[in-house]
Amino acid sequence: MTIHGQRVFLNDGYDYILNTYGVDCAAHLTLTFKTPEELLACYDKLKVDNNLPAPFTETPYNVLVGNFTDRFGVLWGFMVI
What we know:
Blueprint: E1 2-3, E2 6-11, H1 14-21, E3 28-33, H2 36-46, E4 56-59, E5 62-69, E6 75-80
Parallel strand pairs: 3-6
Antiparallel strand pairs: 1-2, 2-3, 4-5, 5-6
């Protein structure tokens, strides 16, 4: 779906999320961005207040991709496409 021009993918695989990420959350939200700067700006607003670096890496198929859990226990996936 698209929300305010932002593409959002929804995954309701509860068992997969719990077994893969150890997160007790019914949904995994994935947002796509056009640039790494857009991704990191959004992550900066959602991350838990800590000094840990962003959990993102470059992969053979993507410039920047990663997952994290916000302060409410929601699992997010961010990727640049």
